[in-house]
Amino acid sequence: MEFANQLLAKGMSVTKAAIEASRLRFRPILMTAFSTIFGVMPLAFASGPGAASRVSIGISVLGGMLVSTVLSLYVVPVFYVMAKGLQLGLFPKSAQDLADGDQISNGYVNENSKTDPADGKNQDSVENLRK
User: Fold this and answer.
1) At 96, which CATH number?
2) Which long-range contacts (CB under 8 A, 24 or more apart) does 22-27 make?
3) What pLDDT digit, counting tens, does each position of 7-31 carry?
4) What CA dihedral angle connects 27, 14, 116 and 112, to 10 degrees?
5) pLDDT per residue over 73-82, tens digit each?
6) What whole-number distance in Å separates Cα of residue 30 and Cα of residue 75?
7) Which residues of the chain have pLDDT under 50?
8) What's the number of domains the chain is made of?
9) Side-chain half-sphere of 17: how many Cα atoms within 13 Å?
10) Residue 89: its pLDDT value, please?
11) What is the pLDDT of residue 1?
């Protein structure tokens, strides 16, 4: 949900940021999931000696990928909106800091960071190299 955090920092509402981030990440998530699912299918439909162990591993990975794909596409954005709404209600100052574009470092707002959320480049290290 890093994309949603960046959009939220640019001033977009929580719901619209989650929807837009989900829209942007939909294709890459499906491509990754389907490549793994199709790669595991020979294990899931194995036959011959030792097939029982291969089939059990293949079915487990296949089922796990299907469930995790559904969760990442539908449940994670909904949970993000709920959690971010709770954060905005309980901690309005930190939410305002995020809306102002301050970066998060290890869960805390870092007001001294010079990282631009749009390109992710940290200007602190560039300035230190020039000195």
Assistant:
1) 1.20.1640.10
2) 22/73, 22/77, 26/73
3) 988 989 999 999 999 999 999 999 9
4) -140
5) 999 999 999 9
6) 15
7) 104-113, 122-131
8) 1
9) 20
10) 86
11) 79
DSSP the chain: -HHHHHHHHTT--HHHHHHHHHHHHHHHHHHHHHHHHHHHHHHHT--STTHHHHHHHHHHHHHHHHHHHHIIIIIHHHHHHHHHHHHHHH-HHHHHHHHTTPEEETTEEETT--B-TTT--BHHHHHHHH-
Q: Which two tokens stand for residue 31?
A: 């491509």
Answer for the pair 46, 55: CB distance below 8 angstroms, yes or no: yes
Residue 52 lies in a domain: yes
- Counting every residue written for the chain, the total comes to 131
- pLDDT at residue 91, as a whole number: 83
* Residue 36 burial class via C-beta count within 10 angstroms: exposed 0-12, middle 13-18, buried 19 and up: middle
Q: Is residue 92 one of the residues assigned to a domain? A: yes
The residue written with tokens 């837009």 in the block is 20
Range of the domain at 80: 2-100
Residue 76 in domain = yes
**Token couple for 77:** 């954005």
